[in-house]
Design a protein that fits this description.
The structure holds two protein chains of two kinds.
Chain A lengths: L4 H4 L5 H42 L3 H4 L14 H7 L8 H33 L5 H10 L9 H11 L5 H26 L3 H9 L3 H30 L2 H6 L8 H7 L8 H21 L1 H8 L7
Helix pairs in contact in A: 2-13, 4-13, 5-8, 5-10, 5-12, 8-10, 9-10, 10-14, 12-13
Chain B lengths: L3 E10 L2 E11 L4 E5 L6 H9 L6 E6 L2 E2 L5 H4 L1 E4 L11 H11 L4 H14 L15 H13 L5 E5 L7 H18 L2 E6 L2 H7 L2 E6 L2 E6 L1 H6 L4 H6 L6 E8 L2 E4 L4 E3 L11 E6 L4 E2 L7 E11 L4 E7 L2 E7 L10 E6 L5 E4 L12
Helix pairs in contact in B: 3-4, 3-5
Protein name (chain A): Carbohydrate ABC transporter permease
Organism (chain A): Nonomuraea turkmeniaca
InterPro entries (chain A): BP-dep_ABC_trans_perm (IPR050901), MetI-like (IPR000515), MetI-like_sf (IPR035906)
Chain lengths: 303, 358
């Protein structure tokens, strides 16, 4: 027979009766929450855990059946292979990591330098057909990038940007500028325009007012936006694999994917390369975690 | 020199006409108050003078020179914002120094000027704090210091006292008047508080829906309102307005009362009029020739005096009385009217009738 705790609690003043009930309900819910979140965390984190384990296992342990979760010999050989070629010198993978750093870094800087002033302008000035322009800018993000891969490929072949880092930098910047404008416009809107008004009456020009008084207040927002752009460029795979072919130019995502598909796959190397690839994103996301949430929930709360 | 003149200012925000032909002449060295309810276009007028608002039409002249196209910096004005707009990452000192830094003054000049201003406004001990560490009144003083640290053509103030509590507001009113007198500079001061306007101004411009209703000294605006709306907006308790018309030498009210017609009203018989009576020009304690009969509606004791609400027909008259006045609601009362101080408006146009002739 099921008797809830509520029913056996002797009836007394209303307050005494409802309070424990509410507390019990709260505890019950939190137990369920923790259980569900644990399941979710295990499902989400298992691949990452498996990747890390594989990267430090010897190859024969990787294929062991039943799988060895704990009792395996730890080795750092795969990480060495990521950076050092088998005959000595730099490995192709290390070159691709360097390419990723250059491409993601430069394209992010470019998108920020173009996007932040644009966001400021859209926030502060009565631009003609502002809403239409902003919608047009946003609409470039509606489209899955894959849709334009072929046209871009043909255009790039014509102008000689195929298989060049500059080509990748430009296309990533083009994808990140709209995002930067939208995200930064939210941050600029939060900074009262009166600071700039006051600065102009102090005797500064409009640009000086922006540079000296508004820009410093935008720095946290710029950092968050730049990290988003950086993560996008860093992770991008489709354009990278279509528009580049040589090892000198190729970025890490297609390079890691390229490790799979031979007669034998060195899973240890794939996992180690993946760990190295994932680390910067984790570090950046950790550094700006506060702003990431602010960015995600931006505009959700009216202040 | 510091004259400010605006002519025919027009500005619309979408469908809202914020300024609809505003023309003002601010004489050198005057304390000029722009008074109006919220949404009247006061702040827009001030921002237009400052060069922060792009105008649809009209011109701004500073010291007689056309400055309509000038940048805010080139206009050589200082402004106190309603929100104070203190730079949040700068200390009070740096905030006050900002106008001097922008104009490339030497560090010793800046230090001297900031020191002088902070002692004038009693904020010496706040100089190293940031705006977030200041109270509303302290922020207001710092904002004021930032404006006063230079000697610009004119000072623009956008409801600088609105965000202060009442006691501080009264204090700052006196202080601002004192500062104005000691500087002898031109102040253009925007407010929706008629008490501020009447107590501080040399000249008041009353603004409504982007149009100037009346410009004059506080006394002129109070004693001889140009129209029914100004009469109703300026003065507390608000003026009582009674519908009536002239019949020979009498004014006949819509509620049936009659009063001797003031000799200076020029309206022909039968034309709908509004009789405006201020609370202090009415009495329930004295007897006179002209009086209205009504019943006691309510008493509003205000400490130094009591406002008696008297119902005449369907309309309520506000009468100023001594605090000793008493009575029960519904009681019949006779209200004595000082007709020499009454106002008569055309009920259709709202304009005052021959106020100048008295």
């Amino acid at each position: 027979m099921a008797v809830s705790v509520d029913e056996v609690v002797p009836t007394g003043p209303v307050r005494d009766h409802t309070r424990p009930a509410r507390r019990l309900g709260g505890r019950g819910r939190s137990v369920l929450e923790v259980a569900l979140l644990t399941v979710l965390a295990v499902v989400m984190l298992f691949p990452a855990l498996w990747m890390i384990e594989t990267s430090i296992k010897e190859n024969r342990d990787v294929y062991a059946i039943p799988a060895k979760f704990f009792d395996f010999k730890v080795t750092m050989d795969h990480f060495k292979d990521v950076f050092v070629a088998s005959g000595g010198g730099r490995s192709a993978l290390s070159v691709s990591f360097l390419n990723s750093v250059v491409v993601a870094g430069v394209s992010t800087v470019l998108a920020t330098v173009l996007g932040v002033p644009a966001a400021w302008a859209y926030s502060r000035f009565g631009v003609k057909a502002k809403k239409d322009q902003l919608f047009f800018i946003l609409s470039t993000r509606f489209m899955p990038p894959v849709v334009v891969v072929i046209p871009i490929f043909l255009m790039y072949r014509q102008v000689g940007l195929i298989d060049s880092k500059l080509g990748l930098i430009l296309i990533y910047a083009a994808f990140n500028v709209p995002f930067t404008i939208w995200m930064m416009k939210g941050f600029v809107d939060e900074v009262p325009a009166e600071y700039e008004d006051a600065a102009m009456l102090d005797g500064y020009t409009r640009l000086q007012a922006f540079w000296r008084f508004t820009l410093p207040l935008l720095l946290p927002g710029i950092a968050a936006t730049a990290v988003f752009a950086l993560i996008f460029s860093w992770n991008e795979f489709v354009f990278a694999i279509f528009l580049t072919s040589s090892d000198d130019v190729r970025t890490a995502p297609p390079a890691i994917a390229g490790l799979i598909g031979g007669t034998t796959v060195d899973w240890g190397l794939v996992a180690a390369a993946s760990v190295v690839f994932a680390l910067p994103v984790l570090v950046f996301a950790y550094l700006v975690r506060k702003h990431l949430i602010a960015g995600v929930t931006l505009g959700a709360v009216r202040r | 020199m510091g004259t400010v003149a605006v002519h025919g200012l027009r500005k619309s925000f979408g469908k809202v006409q914020a300024l609809d032909g505003v023309t003002l002449d601010v004489p050198d060295g005057s304390f000029f108050v722009v008074l109006g309810p919220s949404g009247a276009g006061k702040t827009t007028t001030l921002r237009a003078i400052a060069g922060l608002e792009k105008l649809d039409a009209g011109s701004v002249h500073l010291d007689g020179r056309d400055a309509t196209g000038d940048t805010p910096a080139a206009r050589d004005l200082a402004m106190v914002f309603q929100s104070y707009a203190l730079y949040p990452r700068h200390t009070a000192y740096e905030n006050i120094a900002s106008p001097l830094r922008a104009r490339r003054c030497s560090p010793s000049e800046i230090a001297a000027a900031v020191e002088q201003m902070s002692s004038l406004l009693h904020i010496e001990r706040l100089l190293q704090r940031r705006p977030a560490q200041l109270s509303g009144g302290e922020m207001q003083r710092v904002a004021l210091a930032r404006a006063l640290v230079r000697r610009p053509r004119a000072f623009l103030m956008d409801e600088p006292l609105t965000n202060l509590d009442l006691k501080l507001r009264v204090e700052m009113r006196t202080e601002l008047t004192r500062i104005h007198r000691s500087l002898g500079a031109t102040f253009v001061y925007v407010t929706n508080d008629q008490v501020e306007a009447l107590s501080m101004a040399d000249q008041v411009a009353v603004l409504k829906e982007g149009k100037v209703q009346q410009v004059g000294t506080p006394t002129e605006v109070y004693e001889r309102p140009a129209n029914q709306w100004v009469a109703g907006f300026v003065g507390s308790p608000p003026i009582s307005l009674l519908a009536c018309h002239a019949e020979g030498d009498r004014l006949v009210g819509a509620e049936g009362w009659t009063l001797p017609r003031p000799h200076w009203t020029t309206a022909e018989d039968g034309r709908p009029l509004l009789l405006g009576l201020r609370a202090e020009d009415l009495s329930v304690e004295q007897r006179g020739d002209a009086s209205l009969s009504g019943e006691l509606y309510g008493l509003e004791p205000l400490g130094d005096r009591t406002v008696v609400d008297v119902r005449v027909g369907t309309e309520i008259l506000k009468v100023k009385a001594r605090t000793t006045v008493s009575g029960t609601p519904g009681e019949r009362l006779l209200v004595t009217v000082d007709l020499d101080r009454a106002h008569v408006f055309d009920a259709r146009t709202g304009l005052a009738l021959s106020e100048a002739g008295r």
